[in-house]
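Summary for the funding panel

The consortium committed to producing paired sequence-structure records for every protein in the target list. Below we show the first two records in order, beginning with the earlier of the two.
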Amino acid sequence: MKIESIRLKNFKAFHDVEMREIPKFCVFVGANGTGKSSFFSVFGFLKDALIGNVNTALAKLGGARGFDEVISRNSSGPIEIELKFRERASKDSPLITYYVQIGKRKGRAVVEREILKYRRGSKGSPWHFLDFSLGVGEAVVNELDSVIIESDLKRERQQLKSPDILAVKGLAQFERFPAAMALGNLIENWHISDFHINRARQEQEAGYAEHLSRDGENLSLVVQYLYQNEKETFERIISVMRRRIPGVTEVNAETNDEGRVVLRIKDGMLDEFFLSRFISDGTMRMLAYLVLLYDPNPFPLLCVEEPENQLYPSVLAELAEEFRAYATRGGQVLVSTHSPDFLNAVNLDEVFWLEKDKGYTQIKRAKNDKQITTYMRDGDKMGYLWKQGFFGGADPK
């Protein structure tokens, strides 16, 4: 999957913004409070709404005030989110638009409008495969590849149990709604990473985990799974660890006598294993990112907040290379950073910055700034330009 554009209206600090031509590897910079985390929360919100409903997702994002906390200040609504994406990065893949409009009625959030439409070629109007309002609407039941002209589409009228449920959630469970099912699968497999060292150090009860969780507390379980079931992937991760972190020669996760899975890393210089609580923060973080990036079943969209924390500046360029390689293999990567060293490893067309204007956040692109483009063409680096104040309101303080 490749997201081509995002439009947000009345969503937290984003009163009305659109971000176009999003690259496979995309990096955001901005001062504290400009909305980097809020931007990533769009994806978490849609995933939570798909699992539950928009009220539970809004409560998770905005606390007890829910809708009133998420909607932009001084806005009457509704909240609008529009994503344009392709199931494959190829331009031959149909451009898909998903639009959801959320309002508030009788004290509760409701889905006022939800649309899923495909543009099959470069010309003509897109075909509506799903169109719902307040829990009632129509969805196409044809297999997408079997449809040649729009008049061949077969639609069924459906009514959801509640107006705060996404139609994609309900219809994605049924094979006769292939368009909704495809979108539902994509949203379910988005991943937002907000890794916390202290959570990852905790010993886990023996269990089973194939994928790293959002905050990384199941790192030892995933390492154990990879060692036991994905030997080739595990060896690749260890090989990269040896190159990125000098001294590391071996990693394992074993179940102790108390039934807990213990993560251990071997330092070749001392020829002994160290338990996770004695391993450096940087080593733990690099291991977690490699486990995430070399997942045998990679996420179609991966969002990572401030990966530079606890890492030496010298390895940040290498980490940027790993993120870009992940994007090259097929997954899209969105990263937020405060590190000039990380930015120095990023290309001109990969960088966007966020800045506040009259209380709301605007999104700007580095390659659209003539001055930044000229300096980069002359051999300067992105991180140095950021430190020198060329990114407007996104300058580091």
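The next record, for a separate protein in the list, is shown here:
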Amino acid sequence: MTLREYIKLAVKNKTAIGHFNACTIDGVWAIADAAREIDLPVIVGVSEGERDYLGVRQIAAVIKSIRAERDQPIFLNADHTYSFERVKEAVDAGFDAVIFDGAQSLLDENIAMTKKCVDYARSLSKAQSRDILVEGELGFIGKSSKVLDEIPAEAVVGEKNMTKDEDAVKFIRETGVDILAPAVGNIHGIIRGGDPALNIERIESISKAVQIPLVLHGASGNTADEIQKAIKAGIAIVHVNTELRLAYRAGLMKSLSDDCEEISPYKYLKPAKLAMQKVVEEKLKIFGKL
């Protein structure tokens, strides 16, 4: 099955596919092993910075090799991409999906750039007989995958600033994106003291209006109950990054404690990888079986 087919199945069954970011090979294996253990499809996401660290074509080759060797439904997404050139780079490298993030731009500017990315992906899909998904983003929710003291001032979390049905419909109609990431009270990173509540009614309203799968970014910090309600309301893909980074760092710090005499990286890195894997497994159970 293709990623598109798995997403369609998730929509039908009111479940969601997990999207987890990685910037090291440990992270990739943590995601792959967790998904295989739970027996679910999974998406590995790499932001511009993450794929620069891993290598754009190199991470594409790694994911393809895992998929082929294990016959595992694991897919690669170019997360938060801010220019056409970098979208093209990821699509050319063989990514299964790409996000053009024009959320900080004016609506018409966002539409124009997103459509350019969609048109290129469609042309390559046709030429190479590939199915490349393009995601658009409407409503800025911040950029930081870290623990924050407060909600970023420019992020749109207030009721009046969240993605509106009419804007989403216009965006979908004029860009032709396959999936949409709206601003529905979600925030990138984790807010100390608790993340703001997701607006479940807004998710459901947007989902009915656009009739395409929705993506929840910034799910680190949201409760399992909130996420499950969001999935039932129309979310088909859930992004998690910050919680993985925190788990990796905690696992690594424990390995490299003062009494640690181990010098083999593959040994002292393993607890960090396993800590990430545990988080992925827990999240996949929340998102539900296809």
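Regarding this second record: The domain at 3-287 is CATH 3.20.20.70 (TIM Barrel). The CA atoms of residues 251 and 271 lie 5 Å apart.
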